[in-house]
Specification:
By secondary structure, the protein is of the alpha+beta class. The protein is built from four helices and eight strands, in the order βαββββαββαβα.
Length: 187
Amino acid sequence: MARTYPMLDQKLTEWIGEQHVYFVATAPIGPGGHVNVSPKGYDSFRVLGPTTVAYLDLTGSGVETIAHIRQNGRVTIMFCAFEGPPRVLRLYGSGEVIRPDDPGSDELLRLFPGHGGVRAVIRVNLERISTTCGYGVPFMEFDEERKTLRQWSDRKGPEGIRKYHLEENSYSVDGLPGLAGLGIEEA
């Protein structure tokens, strides 16, 4: 049933690549802050090495993941098998926020298909890799990706996205810096 791994092997890496959705969980330090869980889709996740992964953080209404990672680095990524044999995979690690204009970001961004509204790439150094049975996860059939986020980003354009980041993504719901201080104020 439950099993831990020292690294992502080829079998787990291939399985990750077959999943259509994953969840990212973060939390601030101390009591009173909000724990955040964000669903992610699109073709936005990459295994960079046996203990390193990355995903695109696309513009959204909140900036909790970036704020929490900037504060303490802690992040857990969970994949669930909605098709095929049951499995839940959790990747625990320490994350890093890499903005599109940061040095070295071009190399990471080339790994993903083009998306409008990319806020950052989140790179995670894995500290624990584990699977559990997933017997309670329902079967669900994948239909297609939603087009809404891409259409919204295209309508906003680069300047509209920058303005949105300033107005809506500068701070988390708990007042922690999200994109504030990462260069969005300039330009």
